[in-house]
What we know:
Structural class: mainly alpha
Helix content: over 70%
Oligomer: single chain
Largest sheet: none
Low-confidence stretches: none
Number of strands: 0
Radius of gyration: 17 Å
Distance between the termini: 19 Å
Amino acid sequence: MKNKLNIRPPFLSALCILTFVGSSLGFIGYFFASVFFEKSSELIIKYSSWHSTDAISPLYFTLLMVLFAFSLTGAIRIWKFRKGGFLIYSIAQIGILFLPVIWIDWNAFSATNAIATTVFIVGYGLSLKRRNH
C-alpha cells in the first residue's frame, strides 16, 4: 500500500507542471534577451509602447533569468516533497513581480502577473498545508 504522504494531489501536480513550463520558458526567454540584448531592445521598441530601453540592461534580464531558475528549483522541490521548495518558489515569484518595479518604476508593475503569482502561491500553500494534515 502506498504511503498517503507520497501521493501528490492532482491540483498540486497541475500547479507544478504549469510552473515547470512557465519558469522554463521564462528562463530561456530571459537568457536570450540577456545574450542578445541589442536585438531584444529593438524588438521591445518595435512591439511595445517603449521608445527607449535605456532603463534596462543585460543585467536586468540576467537577474530575471536567475529568478526564473529559482522558481523552477522551488517547483521541483515541491514536486519531490522537499522542504524549502515553497519558500524558494515564493521568494522567486515575488522577486519576478517586483524587480521590474524596483529597476524601472511602478509603471512596470503587472497586475496580470500579480494575480497569477497570488493564485499559484495560494494554490501551493493550500495544497501543501492540506498534505501535511
